[in-house]
């Protein structure tokens, strides 16, 4: 999920780019598929990225302990600041009173870390594989979704 924003940074404030994100985890080190649309806007201090992405993360059910795929929708809105001025090539210091991500020295804006953080924020604390998951039998440990056990509790 890397985008070269050198050209956008050279354009006037207010210039935009729209991208379709279609990331499959086989390509690189990030193990979630990500798809959706993002808009990059050149602001007077940064590139503002806005968009809605859908992804899927693997969680472990808090009741029956199986892992399952959990679909997530992320409403991304983040500022990305340049580490280097695109015109002069001089390093710029990122204002430290703002929250945001960094665009690297080659003007590559990478969405991976932002998606990772938004995924964590949107992941439930006690996920369940399905709303009516029966969980494990507290006596024999059998997964009660698969078949009832013989314990009478
Ligand atoms: Zn479960
Ligand atoms: Zn049992």
Summarize the entry for a quick read.
This protein is 10% helix and 37% strand. It has two helices and seven strands.
Which molecules are bound in this entry? zinc ion
Strand content: 35-45%
* Mean pLDDT metric: 91
Rg value = 21 Å
3D structure, described in words:
The chain has 153 residues and is mainly beta. The protein has one domain. It has two helices and seven strands; from the N terminus they run E-H-E-E-E-E-E-E-H. It has a five-stranded mixed beta sheet with strand order 2-3-4-5-6. Strand 3 and strand 4 form a beta hairpin. The longest helix is centred in the last third of the chain and has 11 residues. The chain is elongated, with a radius of gyration of 21 Å. It starts with a strand and ends in a 31-residue tail after the last helix. The model has no long low-confidence stretch (mean pLDDT 91). It binds zinc ion (ZN) (2 copies). The site of one zinc ion has 6 residues, from loops.
């Amino acid at each position: 999920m890397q985008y070269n924003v050198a050209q956008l940074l050279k354009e006037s404030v207010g210039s935009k780019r729209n991208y379709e994100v279609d990331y499959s985890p086989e390509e690189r080190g990030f193990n979630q598929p990500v798809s959706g649309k993002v808009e990059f806007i050149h602001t007077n201090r940064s590139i503002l990225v806005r968009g809605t992405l859908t992804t899927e993360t693997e969680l472990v059910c808090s009741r029956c302990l199986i892992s399952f795929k959990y679909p997530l929708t992320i409403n991304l809105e983040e500022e990305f600041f340049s580490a280097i001025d695109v015109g002069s090539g001089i390093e710029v210091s990122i204002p430290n009173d703002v929250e945001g991500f960094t665009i690297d020295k080659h003007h590559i804006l990478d969405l991976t870390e932002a998606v990772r953080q938004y995924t964590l924020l949107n992941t439930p604390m006690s996920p369940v594989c399905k709303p009516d998951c029966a969980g494990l039998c507290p006596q024999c440990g059998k997964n009660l979704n698969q078949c009832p056990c013989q314990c009478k509790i």
